[in-house]
Structures
1.
Amino acid sequence: MFQTTIDHVGVEERAAKLGQRSIKAATKVQGIKLALSMIDLTTLEGKDSAGKVRAMCQKAKHPLPGNSEVPHVAAVCVYPNMITVAKQALAGTDINIAAVATGFPSGQYPLDIKLNDVRSAVNLGADEIDMVIDRGAFLSGHLSKVADEIALVKEACGAAHLKVILETAELETYDNIRKASWLSMEAGADFIKTSTGKLSQAATLPITLVMLEAIRDYWYETGKVIGMKPAGGIRTSKDAMKYLVLVKETLGDVWLTPHYFRFGASTLTNDLLMQLTKEMTGMYQSVDYFTVD
């Protein structure tokens, strides 16, 4: 099935058409709240500190302090050495802790180090593992190596969910993106994810559509529901609504939940909050009104 050839023009035209859908005001408020509940609030910087992670976790719990109608986010995503800090800060909530592993963002680490990285993160308290595939091996045609690594990482995850990052900007073609999506799902991915967020070209509507259609076809063939996470470059509420339309039209309402769809886009959070405040009060708040991640 992953050998299907992608109609380059067709996928881009359909993504553009779906991205033009008009959304009414009441539906927009509902969509903004849904998008907020789907965010993986993320910090993956060399200068990350315990204080920064605690502040991010506070925002994850209460994106708009004083307004109980605004949902908390789905998860926070951190480097493994910040898992303990996040776990303490999020105690008593159902916000998940995601950790990047397996030599993020390159994926160019020996397998034993990758697996130890995963086991360590899970032992520290990670609920979800975001791994990255070896794009060099994939593009060189060593598909079994990539699949075997995903399967072994899935085993090392234990009860933790596995998100497999394709780093689509390096996969070169839509055909490769579909092939990598299918391979990842067959090997045990619970989610497939576009990007690490470390490259300038990350999530796009056409790329996401290709991956969503792979998820749909895999579901038709196996009955398994696999999640999707576009990450990188999604910055505005308007963008987020386009992605939600894409999900609804391609996969249906079952996937319109944080259990099966996430945004890896921390900078998106404040724009969603700004637009939500405007819809509820009729006035825009200054960007300074919201905390900076």
2.
Amino acid sequence: MKAKKIKIRLKRSTIGSLPFQRKTVKALGLNKVNSEVIHNTTPSILGMVNAVSHMIEVEEIK
């Protein structure tokens, strides 16, 4: 079975956010606004996405 992938894009700046949210965004591999990364859908990645869902945009890749 093939692992599902998601594309994550940072749509809001981390300025003014909580320190743990800044670290989560950096751990996802996002640096600047509009930067994108592709990750496999693992429970740890989905947890990080949930923690900063108001700052990112997620799209499933087929």
3.
Amino acid sequence: MPRIHIVTDSGARFSNPRLVRHFPVTILPNTIDIAGARYLEGVDIDVDQAFELISSHGKPPIVEPPSENDYAEQYARLSHFCDAIISVHPSRELSSSWSNGRLAAQQVSSSCEIAVVDSQSLCAGQGMLIRVAARAAHEQETAEEVIQTVRQAVNRIYSVYCVRNVDFLRANGFMKPSHAVLSTQLGIKPFISLEDGNLIVIEKVRTRGEIIERLVEFLVEFTELEDAVVLQDQKHITEETRVMQDRLALEFPGQHFPFTMYSATMASYLGTEATGVAVLENEVDEFDYDF
């Protein structure tokens, strides 16, 4: 088996945190600036503490990804005992992390191959791609096969969120101010989709029941799920998530739908009042058709 190490940043979230303890994964922390105070995500501050501070400040924090030098130092260190490094980054449309990793890889003089991958996602979607990389590194024979598997999986990851407070969407430019004001006045909650690495408003709902219904409908569109996770804004399971899990148990017998808080990095875009789901669709063999 090739000796492969995975690198990512702290914006990634995992339905099973034990993943990073059982596989060679290094997580470099993002720096989160909340009202002038700077924290290393996951080091100086955990996710629920970050949510509390972000919520009390009321404005989007500034998220700084690991720098080019941070990545270069990590790649150089790992290159001494790895055949390949797979560096998984949030969408280049939303973060400079991928660009920093790409420039850093060019600095490293080594026979170790460094694949810098744009996940075209954030948060749990990014974490799912890391899980794909870890599994492929354990199962496949060459580094080239592992890297190809990871790159192909990018297009099988989907995420949607329902945002109950539109202030951060407006501040970040994802909603026009007039649309945000109207949504607030009418009690309308936007649905946000991650498409081609961008956050896009795709529709709007009003009630909690409609939120649950729309998230379930989104998941039911997939006939085969390799991985799925519910994202919420609290540490402990919410009633919304519990109802969703009950509904999904009927739609997908035997399929597990774990939950976790979305990352503080994701909260910098959406705010601290959202519910979502992330999905990794099963790979379909192009020759596997019913005739």
4.
Amino acid sequence: MNHGDSQGPVTLLDLHFQMEGTVGAFLVRTAEGPILVETGPESLFDHLEAEVQAQGFALEDIRHVFVTHIHLDHAGAAWRLARHGARIYVHPVGAPHLADPSKLLGSAQRIYGEAMERLWGRLEPIPSDRITALEDGQVVAFGDTAIQAIHTPGHAIHHITYRLDDGLFTGDVGGIRIGHGPVIPPFPPPDIDLEAWSDSIARMRAAHPTFIYPTHFGIKRDGLAHFDSLEENLHRIADWVRDQAATGTSEEALVPPFQVFMHDLLAGQGLPESAIDEYETADPAFMSVYGLARYWKKRALGMPITSAGGPRTGPVPKEAP
């Protein structure tokens, strides 16, 4: 899907994370001005500004920013937009980490080391009065445009899917899908919860979307079929890691065969090497190995696996617009 692709009021912005077509944000035109869904990492802020300007707006025109969750490829530049006057909307569990990102920053630095700033840029606090925590089912209206928050844990306990008319902004819980390829769920530590994820898929299905806007990447127009692919691969990939980890293989040693497994899965769908590289850029294999290994270890030890507010079992809240 090309950057600048649009569906009604929604325009896809390509933030060029290492290559085209891997990390996006969405500009939504409303009667009260443009709003933004996702920010990308701070390292790509210049790309974001250029994309916004290409749509005829300045960053100061964006007064409202919705992030699906606080991972750096989705919300890393939120503090920069807040300094330009925007209000940031986020899950209640994520809100304190935007106000004080020290734990988020420390965790990312342990993973990425010296590559941290090159990949993700800087993180600075957002004043609490610029942050709005959204409850499940809450609707924010801008004229005749209504954005509804649907709490969808599984990928992260602080994940929200946003509903706009007959479309869903699915962040990462709706999977990664490059072009017309399969939908691949990303499994980074520490919050993977397969039961909650399956429940979140059911909640997204219950919204009966015609359009799906995955941050990685594009505007998808095949509705519920998207979730069929997501659900199939959720179990296929998680079961592979479970079975391999059960042999006593270390997480580090699992990464190379997992990369082969994912390559073969994607190649088996007819994807060229260039597209397979795009999937790896958007969803590094080592992250899924460590996230799923942690999940299965907790299950084996009988440790509780919980999500913010507990599992969601209901349909999309009645106050859906």
